[in-house]
Amino acid sequence: MINSIKKHWPIIAALGIFWATIVVILVLSARQNQGHFIYALDDSYIHMSMAKNFAQHGVWGINKSEFTSSSSALLWTLLLSLIYFFIGLNEFAPFILSLIFGTLLLITVYLLLRKYSLPPLFIFIILFAIVFFAPLPILVFSGLEHILHALLTVLFVSLSAKILSAEKTASKDYMILLAAAPFLTMARYEGLFLVFIVCLLFVVRKRFVHSILLGGLAIIPMAIYGVISIMKGWYFLPNSVLLKGNVPSFSIIGMSKFVHLFYEQIVRNQHIPILLSAALFLFILQYGKQKTFWKDTLIMLAAFIATTLFHLLFARVGGLPRYDAYLVVLALFTIASGMREYLPKRVSIVFNKSFVTKYAAIALLTFVMILPLAGRGVLYTIITPQATTNIYEQQYQMGLFLNKFFQGESVAANDIGAINYLSDIKCLDLWGLGSLEVAKLIIHGKYDTQEIYDLARQKKVKIAVVYDHWFKAYGGLPPAWIKVGEWKISNNVICGGDIVSFYAVSPFEADTLSKDLKIFSSYLPKDVLQSGDYTK
After folding, report:
1. Quick one: which of 492, 464, 459, 490 has its CA closest to 476?
2. Would you say 323 and 317 are in contact if contact means Cβ atoms under 8 Å apart?
3. Helices in 315-392 by DSSP H: which ranges?
4. Between the N and C ends of the chain, which has fewer C-beta atoms within 10 Å?
5. CA 266 to chain centroid
6. To 5 degrees, how large is the angle CA 263–CA 266–CA 269?
7. 3-state helix vs strand vs coil in the chain, percent to 5
8. End-to-end CA distance of the chain
9. Closest CA to 283 of 331, 344, 343
10. In angstroms, rounded to a whole number, what is the distance separating the alpha carbons of residues 381 and 133?
11. Distant-in-sequence, close-in-space partners of 14: CB < 8 Å, separation ≥ 6
12. Total-model pTM
């Protein structure tokens, strides 16, 4: 037992730190949220509402009455659906899944780095970095698919590099890679970037059949879902991909915007170019020494560099560190693997002049990498409890309010997660993720105040619960809507706005909404500041 602990102390210590951090955040969050378990992001509840409807009603959507293509993480929603189908609704399910996959991610990276005979202390540093640089704690409390995506990415890259570096393809390894490909793209559509790169490498290796089969299997789940979406009257791609992605239009203006966004993402996310530079430096260093590309560590470094560039071009990073979490984990893993030849097998305090330059370079590289990543990781780990409080005081209360007074009614909103999970409403998503009509108008540049008014009338919306400032770019909310009240939260670190407004879409609903808000006011957490006609 003692020998096993000594042998595997890096993973034992890393898991202990990871789990202890989760426990501390869980306790702090519960104390701040009146004993409730709350996620740190409203998006968590989008998947939960879709899973609820799919498990209970066989409907893939935020509403139980209609299909909505609101998720680009098909695998995550399906996993939650299976859990809800067999054991019923459980708000802890996404949290437990995230914790399990976070544990598996650390164990996987540990086992893979051990194969490269890296010093135990260095392995522990990498695992510690993954915990706090990804960072895993806020991803666990986000209850989303990003840790699973990171796990599948690391497995896919390491197995691909093993196969491509060998002169002959081992059939067993390749079959596992084929089986993993569709799960990677189902975890998140960005998984297609990595699959595409690996397919290109197979082509360069003149393994054309391998490339075709791999790419075909990766695309199959996306194609099936796309066909179903079209049959339901929606787009081939989910609304989240269409509205959040960066797809260039073939015009001078469109291409300039495309390039500008790519530049902005690099400038605003300093940790990304730093990781890219470190990976490129190691790649050049190793390639100059090996004189061949077909080495596993070189292939993994190249896969990370290319995947990151594709992501920066066609997807988004920034804000809550979730979309790029898999890139940070992949960078730490591939860079660590690439550094094995430049690290001592044992840590020694004996001074050796011949190693001064090498160790100084490694120390400088490590410091440059750590600085922005550490600041980012520490910040988001510290604010996680407060993020859950923001969600509890705003979106969660909105859901409870609608559940109490507007069951079965049509409601317009821009944050659609908690309100659809906690209540049974007909939701018009004014931000487009859950409403096709809105997404079409936004995509074609025709979304404005009048369209919002017309859609609300068509959908027989009774009230709207929204952030006012989100709609200034579209001309504002309809002037005919009557603002009855506002809720304001303090110390906001995660929500799209401090103030959520309640509107009666028609004068006939104003009195009813006012009475309902007044009744519910006593249930609100004391830190929520209420204002408007209903408070008078």
Report:
1. 464
2. yes
3. 325-338, 356-382, 384-391
4. N
5. 18
6. 140
7. 65, 5, 25
8. 68
9. 331
10. 9
11. 106, 110, 124, 127, 128, 130, 131
12. 0.93
* CB distance 246 to 313 below 8 Å: yes
Which residue in the block uniquely carries the two structure tokens 């407004």? 501
Contact in structure between 282 and 301 (CB atoms under 8 Å)? yes
Nearest to 141 by CA among 94, 173, 193: 94
Partners of 487 in the β-ladder? 500, 530
**Rounded distance between C-alpha atoms, residue 282 and residue 289, angstroms:** 11
3-state SS class at 236: coil
Query: In whole angstroms, what is the distance from residue 341 CA to residue 256 CA?
Result: 42
User: Could you tell me the two tokens for 420?
Assistant: 């659809």
- Euclidean distance between CA atoms 82 and 88, whole angstroms: 9
Q: Which amino acid is at 250?
A: F
Q: Which residues fall within 8 angstroms of residue 77, CB to CB, at 6 or more apart?
A: 47, 50, 51, 54, 60, 71
The angle formed by the CA atoms of residues 143, 183 and 114, to the nearest 5 degrees, is 85
Write down the residue that tokens 């990543």 correspond to.
373
The pair of three-digit structure tokens given for residue 299, joined into one six-digit string: 């292939």
- The beta-carbon contacts of 471-479 under 8 Å, at least 24 apart in sequence, are 471/430, 474/447, 474/448, 474/449, 475/448, 475/449, 475/450, 476/449, 477/449, 477/452, 477/503, 478/449, 478/450, 478/452, 478/453, 479/449
**Residue with token string 């304001």:** 488
The SS3 assignment for 30 reads helix
Element (H, E) at 247: none
Give the pair of three-digit tokens for residue 117. Answer: 């005979």
The amino acid at residue 464 is A
- The two three-digit tokens of residue 415, written as one number: 């944050």
Query: Tens-of-pLDDT digits for all 536 residues of the chain?
Result: 677 777 889 999 999 999 999 999 999 999 999 999 999 999 999 999 999 999 999 999 999 989 999 988 999 999 999 999 999 999 999 999 999 999 999 999 999 999 998 999 999 999 999 999 999 999 999 999 999 999 999 999 999 999 999 988 778 999 999 999 999 999 999 999 999 999 999 999 999 999 999 999 999 999 999 999 999 999 999 999 988 877 776 767 777 877 878 888 888 888 899 999 989 999 999 888 888 899 999 999 999 999 999 999 988 887 788 999 999 999 999 999 998 877 766 655 455 565 566 666 666 766 766 778 888 888 999 999 999 999 999 999 999 999 999 999 999 999 999 999 999 999 999 999 999 999 999 999 999 999 999 999 999 999 999 999 999 999 999 999 999 999 999 999 999 999 999 999 999 999 999 999 999 999 999 999 999 989 98
